[in-house]
Write a structure and sequence with these properties.
Blueprint: H1 2-6, H2 10-16, E1 40-43, E2 46-49, H3 50-58, E3 67-70, E4 83-86, H4 88-107
């Protein structure tokens, strides 16, 4: 089993760990997650966040000065249509706006 598993690519592991392939819906990560809810997988003593792997598979390299934002605000989503490379400042700004919007929706009369 270990020998066979070593031949499975990260792309294969990625597709084995998502439950949905609908283009506009969230693709929930079914594998391991960080304590904060991000999908994670490991190979050869290295780990990668699942949403970053999705971006690499479907879009492009991630520039060193950018990080990946979840446009859907779902940390376990790996749908490449829901991912965008942005600056840290933009990512923080979007997260703040999203949390504020959610708060006002839940607390409005």
């Amino acid at each position: 089993m270990t020998v066979i598993r070593s031949f499975i690519s990260l792309t294969d592991i990625f597709f084995q760990n998502i439950n949905n392939h609908q283009p506009d819906e969230c693709w929930e990560w079914l594998g391991s997650k960080t304590p904060t809810g991000y999908g994670i997988l490991g190979r050869n003593n290295k780990t990668i966040l699942a949403h970053r792997l999705s971006y690499l598979i479907f879009k492009d390299e991630i520039p060193k000065d950018l990080e990946i934002d979840h446009l859907c605000n779902n940390k376990s989503c790996v749908n490449p249509r829901h991912l965008e490379a942005v600056t840290h400042k933009e990512n923080i700004k979007r997260a703040f706006i999203s949390k504020a919007r959610k708060y006002f929706q839940e607390n409005s009369i």
